[in-house]
């Protein structure tokens, strides 16, 4: 039997579908860009992220959108 050590650094998967909502798609795109940069070989996290990856949306300031004719407050958060 072969034992596998799967650490949190080996595999990250995330799938999000956003349709007809450019504001959500833009924020999700930033999230994927961060994951892409973090996944580079021997990559260290920067002390601060570039401004083009920043967002003003968070748990204290969610994005107001209408989804399926319903008002929604949305933000994306990642925890590893």
UniProtKB/TrEMBL annotation:
Q: Which residues form the PLD-like domain?
A: 9-77
Q: Which domain of life is it from?
A: Eukaryota
Q: Which Pfam families match?
A: PLDc_3 (PF13918)
Show the InterPro entries listed in the entry: Diverse_PLD-related, PLDc_3
PANTHER family under this entry?
Answer: PHOSPHOLIPASE D - RELATED, PLD PHOSPHODIESTERASE DOMAIN-CONTAINING PROTEIN
The protein's name in its UniProt record: PLD-like domain-containing protein
Q: What organism does the record attribute this protein to?
A: Parascaris equorum (Equine roundworm)
């Amino acid at each position: 039997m072969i034992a596998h050590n799967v650490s949190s650094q080996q595999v990250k998967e995330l799938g999000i579908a956003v349709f007809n909502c450019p504001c959500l798609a833009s924020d999700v795109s930033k999230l994927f860009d961060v994951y892409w940069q973090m996944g580079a070989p021997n990559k260290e996290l920067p002390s601060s992220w570039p401004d083009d990856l920043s967002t003003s949306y968070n748990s204290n300031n969610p994005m107001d959108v209408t989804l399926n004719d319903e008002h929604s407050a949305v933000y994306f958060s990642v925890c590893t």
